[in-house]
């Protein structure tokens, strides 16, 4: 089994000529479940996308000892209205070769069905993805990320906008995944249900250009409470987000 | 009506109609998925300039149309990659420039070229030669082969470009490939439906099919069958009523869309499970 380790060394990221991440250094070990928290605009999603290679760095380096990475984006991208079955959607998470048959073969079909069983959605494998509930869609997105059995899983707000049953289901899936010594990096506003799984929390500061203001275990020190307060004034219980309920 | 098939021009027309009916919606489903339904229109207009140049210099129209359409489609894709707004603008410029260039070169060409231009604008199967047909068969095979090789990647890129990039799929290559394939489809459809309406046979059968389907592949297959039905029935109607095949084919596919949207889709929707909406949309 590959030992996944991610090292971010003094990375700087500019978006539209504005520095959004400045001199960020972070090391994540194999099997760790790391939650990245912070107010809106602190660069959480940007950081995730830089790790994934989707955004360029102005400076710094990232070392990962596995390129088998699974990614669960924040939401489904906009679609032109063409229906996509759950099986088809999950198939897009499979590693493709230079030349692939357009049709899914038996081995691939088994992998897809296994991933759907993992998230408890095998029964709706032939349904149109766009007719599912938000919670089901999120679980299908996770199945797609898991279908290639990645060593590192990166999730962007996986619990946002989904019901409590789906959140519990997500927790079970991630718990099982973590037990296989896989690395999980989570960007979230809503730690709540996933809190027991998290090994370490990294908080990005406001007005600090995406630099780390806390890196450690839960609960987070009370003086950082305001960070969360800025980010969720509208809808979310900040105390539970930062694990302060348990402190 | 079947008697007309004893004529060679009619036989060529049927083969060309079958090709465009089957192939155009296969490319169309990828275009609709990526919200590029008008790309075929843009490249169709640019292909007109290619036809105009061919008529002016007395060259073969199909290769020139293909060259112009491919250059146009790739240019649109490259500009679109930089900015969505610029892509929209690029498409508009292609529309205007393509038709203006086509009409201008045809005006400079010998007088008989104006009649020929109409046949490219609205389709005219009676003037298609054997070499035209061979070119169309070759281009169609090229399109289908490319889809068998890269179709999976093109689908993955259309579903989610970011995830495709994480999986090391060459997203830009796939975007350009789709643009080229749609340009080639425009050239295949040029003789049958005409450059002004060729995009319709790529898009309308897909729009009709997705009223009933639940997956991308079933939309592709059903759309292709609807395209075939439209092109063959439109062709035979045009033979018997003496109207251009292009508008007839497009009207039939539009009627199929209206029928499926108004009659079949509501029935289909009733059988679907109820959708649970998002309770809260997080940032």
Inertia-based shape of chain B: globular
Q: What's the architecture of the largest domain in chain A in CATH terms?
A: 3-Layer(aba) Sandwich
Shape of chain A: globular
* Proportion of beta-strand residues of chain A: 15-25%
Helix content of chain A: 25-40%
| The CATH H-level homologous superfamily of chain B | ABC transporter involved in vitamin B12 uptake, BtuC
Average pLDDT, all residues of chain B: 87
Q: Main beta sheet of chain A: strand number and arrangement?
A: 6 strands, mixed
Q: How far apart are the termini of chain A?
A: 36 Å
Overall structural domain count of chain A: 2
From N to C, what is the helix and strand string of chain B?
Answer: HHHHHHHHHHH
Topology:
The complex is a heterodimer of chains A (247) and B (283).
Chain A: E1 6-15, E2 18-28, E3 33-38, H1 44-51, E4 59-64, E5 69-72, H2 86-91, H3 106-118, H4 134-146, E6 152-156, H5 164-179, E7 183-187, E8 200-204, E9 212-216, H6 225-231, H7 238-241
Parallel strand pairs in A: 3-7, 3-8, 5-6, 6-7
Antiparallel strand pairs in A: 1-2, 1-4, 8-9
Chain B: H1 8-33, H2 39-57, H3 61-82, H4 84-108, H5 113-122, H6 130-159, H7 161-166, H8 171-190, H9 198-209, H10 216-241, H11 245-270
Give structural notes.
- The complex is a heterodimer of chains A (247) and B (283).
- Chain A has 247 residues and is an alpha/beta fold.
- Chain A has two domains: 1-68 and 153-163 and 188-247, Rossmann fold; 84-150, no CATH class.
- Chain A has seven helices and nine strands.
- Chain A has helices at 44-51, 86-91, 106-118, 134-146, 164-179, 225-231, 238-241, and strands at residues 6-15, 18-28, 33-38, 59-64, 69-72, 152-156, 183-187, 200-204, 212-216.
- Chain A has a six-stranded mixed β-sheet, sandwiched between helices. A three-stranded antiparallel β-sheet of chain A has the order 2-1-4, with helices on one face.
- The longest helix of chain A is centred in the last third of the chain and has 16 residues, at 164-179.
- With 283 residues, chain B is an all-alpha fold.
- Chain B has one domain: Orthogonal Bundle (ABC transporter involved in vitamin B12 uptake, BtuC), CATH 1.10.3470.10.
- Chain B is built from eleven helices and no strands.
- In chain B, helix 1 (8-33) packs across helix 9, helix 3 runs antiparallel to helix 8 and helix 9 (198-209) crosses helix 10.
- The longest helix of chain B has 30 residues, at 130-159.
- At the A-B interface, helix 2 and helix 4 of A face helix 1, helix 6, helix 7 and helix 10 of B.
